[in-house]
C-alpha cells in the first residue's frame, strides 16, 4: 500500500485464532521499524482482535478506532473504555 502511494496505509483483518492477532502485531512492528516511510494503521477485528485495538500503538499502529454509539465494525470498543485501557498501558 505504501509503495502504491497511500497517504496513510491501513489494514484491518479478521483473525481466526489468537496467533493471527500476534502475527498482525508482529508484522506491524516490523513494518514500523524497518520499512515504513509514513504512519500506518493496523488492527484485528472481532472479540479476539480487541487486544490489537488497545495495544496497537505499542507495536507501531498510528491510531485506532473507538465507538461513540453503534459499532461500525466487529470488535470496536466504546471510546470511553478504549481511552481507559490505553491510559493503563501507557
Automatic annotation (TrEMBL):
Transmembrane segments: none annotated. The keyword Transmembrane helix does not apply. It is an enzyme of class 4 (lyase). One of its GO terms (biological process) is 3,4-dihydroxybenzoate biosynthetic process. Keywords: Lyase, Schiff base. Its EC number is 4.2.1.10. GO terms for molecular function: 3-dehydroquinate dehydratase activity. InterPro entries: Aldolase_TIM (IPR013785), DHquinase_I (IPR001381), Type-I_3-dehydroquinase (IPR050146). It catalyses: 3-dehydroquinate = 3-dehydroshikimate + H2O. The keyword Ribosomal protein does not apply. It comes from the Bacteria. This is 3-dehydroquinate dehydratase.
